[in-house]
Give the backbone structure.
Amino acid sequence: MFYEIKLKVEKENSKGEMKEVIEHFITDVVLFAEAEKKGLEQYNGNCDVFSITRSNVVEIVNEKEEGKPFYKATLIDIFIDDNGNEKET
């Protein structure tokens, strides 16, 4: 099962100032606790995991490479039906 993890992380911006930003990751684990552990591993525990939700991700394209996180994308297919109307899926 895929889980979406949201983390609050302190990152340096282009001006050299430390800002708190929100990072989103998707991970393939069995339990919420494993998802939290994966989130903390992204920043060696220097972050705050504030949201873990079950994802409605159906497929992972180009299987993951070791050490790289998943990113979520939504694909929209637009087609014209028999009546000449545009439809989205």
The two ends are 23 Å apart (CA to CA).
